[in-house]
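Task 17 of the worksheet. Students: predict the tertiary structure of the chain below and write it out as C-alpha cells. Keep your answer in the requested format; marks are given for formatting as well as content.
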Amino acid sequence: MKLVIISGSRNPDGQTASAAAALAEGARSAGCDTETVFLPTLDIRRCRQCDDQGWGLCRKEGRCVIEDDLVGVVDKIREADVVAFANPVYFGDLSESMGAFLDRLRRVAIHGGNENIKGKPAAGICVAGGGGGGAPRCTVIMESVLTTCGFDVVDMIPARRQNLPMKREVLRTVGAWLAARPSSG
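Model answer:
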C-alpha cells in the first residue's frame, strides 16, 4: 500500500507540514509506504487556456501541452493506492501552488486523462493560520475539485492553528484508516 501526499505548503516545518506528517505517521503505523511531494519546490505552471475557447490538448487528448513537473506528480498519484492533499489556507482558499496544480489536473482528468485516478481514494487537509476561519470553506473548494477530477473523496479535514494539536491526533487515526482501507472502496 502506498500513500502519496501532495502538499501546497512552502514550509516543510510549518503547520500544514506537521498535519501531513501526522497523516503519514498514521499510515506508516498501519504498514503503508508514504511519500510527500511539495508543490512549491516544483515547476508547476498555471494553465495557459491555450486556444480562444480556453482549452487545448487537455480537452482533445487528456494531456497538457506545458512541459513542466505536472506529469511527474500525476504519475506518482496514478501509482499510489491512496492520495492526500495538504493545503495551507490563505484567504479561505487553496494555496497558489495547489490551485495551479489542481486547475491543470482537473482539465486533464475530466477529458480522458484520469486513468488510475478515477475512483482512487483521496483525502484533503486544509490548515489555516491566523484566525483559522477559512479552513472549512477551503475544504469545500478542495473537495469539489477533487471530485471533479474523479477521486473518491473519503475524508476532508479542516484545521486551524488553535486546534492543530488535537487535529494531528485525528490525522494519525485517518492515516491508519486510509492504509487499512481496501482499495476497492
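Marker's comment: Residues 2-180 form a domain with the Rossmann fold fold (CATH 3.40.50.360). DSSP finds six helices and five strands in the chain.
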